[in-house]
Amino acid sequence: MSPDRPPPAATSDPAAGPLAGLLVVALEQAVAAPFCTSRLADAGARVIKIERPEGDFARHYDRAAAGESTHFIWLNRGKESLVLDIKAPEDAALLARLIDRADVFIQNLAPGAAARAGFGSADLLARHPRLIACDISGYGASGPSRDMKAYDLLIQCETGLASITGRPEGPGRVGVSVVDIAAGMYAHAAILEALIARGISGRGRVLQVSLFDAMADWMTVPLLFEMHTGQGPQRLGLMHPSIAPYGAFPTRDGRPVVIAIQNEREWQALCATALGRPEIATDPRFDSGVKRVANRSALDGLVAEILGALSHAEAVARLAAANIAYASVNEVADLARHPHLRLTSVVTPSGPRQLVAPPPIGLGLGAGLGAVPALGQHSDAIRREFAP
């Protein structure tokens, strides 16, 4: 993007999406950066995904979606696929021409790889003052761990997330790529903020988001407990570490129900209506939130005894009548049948597949999700468009 290039023209077509006219060049792989750019593509940005000749390795994670990789179709809808070997001079020159015209450049290669190939973000910004360059890495550009490789589960362990996840018997992994998703969400928000700032100042900037920082931020509450009390939260399975009663309780037919009590009014309603034991609310062991946590074992035993005599349907009916927040402990199969689940369709190289619909509603995100590209599907057209 040359310094004198004017800002992209705004579109008046709401179906095109609020980011229509923006060009995003993504030297990306796996989850974190593709999550970010998929949301930019959903909003109408043109996203050119640079892939190595063998493709983004997320293409090969599985074949569970009727032959397609579940991760890949989720995270790469609406993008164009361009195969490049950025170590080859001609391909590196083409990437440079793409960046000349880009509004956003994002990369999450191994530490230092983009800079060694001549695409370090600081150098790019020096050549293209309006460019927003975003680096996603494991540990950031500085500090003792900056050169370490980092993957989702490794960061779950490094940040202590695994230590507070699971049952008392041992640590556990969060069952989705929560670290990668967190980093991708932070990168997405930071890029949107930088675009707003560029609209005011005319200047781009370099953004850095690390997986470690993203999850460390999400770990703030457990960390503050550790720093101020010397005791971080304990693993409690499906129980809340600092609120009671808040967790899963068995019912007569073996299907647990999760209840969540947030204040004294809800506590009194739970005891009077759902449990049928109003006197429990004023028991001196349980008459405040702090006391309920301190006496969790006795309290959970009482609640479990009462709810355990009811079927799941009976327990849910009582909780609903008391206006108590509750949930069922569903399997993934239950989510697939959930009446509140919103699905949409996306075109893939082997046919249409269903995905969860994007969470934002009413933001003018375009007419629908763009297609998932085959490897190198747009290479020839892009090479012609960006020929020297």
CATH topology of the largest domain: Rossmann fold
Question: CATH architecture of the largest domain, please?
Answer: 3-Layer(aba) Sandwich
- Average pLDDT number: 93
CATH class of the largest domain: Alpha Beta
Largest sheet: 6 strands, parallel
Low-confidence regions: none
* Structure annotation, total helices: 15
CATH superfamily of the largest domain: Crotonobetainyl-coa:carnitine coa-transferase, domain 1
Helix content: 25-40%
- Termini separation comes to 14 Å
- Tell how many strands the DSSP assignment holds: 13
Measured by DSSP, the beta-strand proportion falls in 15-25%
Structural class: alpha/beta
> What's the structural domain tally?
2
Shape: elongated
Q: Nearest-angstrom radius of gyration?
A: 25 Å
Q: What is the string of SSEs from the N terminus onward?
A: EHEHEHEHHEHEEHEHHEEHHHHEHEEH
Walk across the major sheet and give the strand order: 3-2-1-4-5-8
Walk me through what this model shows.
The strands form four sheets. This protein has a six-stranded parallel beta sheet, with helices on both faces. A three-stranded antiparallel beta sheet has the order 9-10-11, with helices on one face. It starts with 22 loop residues before the first strand and ends with a helix. The longest helix is centred in the middle third of the chain and has 24 residues, at 178-201. The protein is 36% helix and 15% strand. Helix 1 (32-42) packs across helix 7 (178-201) and helix 7 (178-201) crosses helix 8. The chain is an alpha/beta fold and 388 residues long. It has two domains: 14-218 and 341-385, Rossmann fold; 246-328, formyl-coa transferase, domain 3, CATH 3.30.1540. The mean pLDDT is 93.
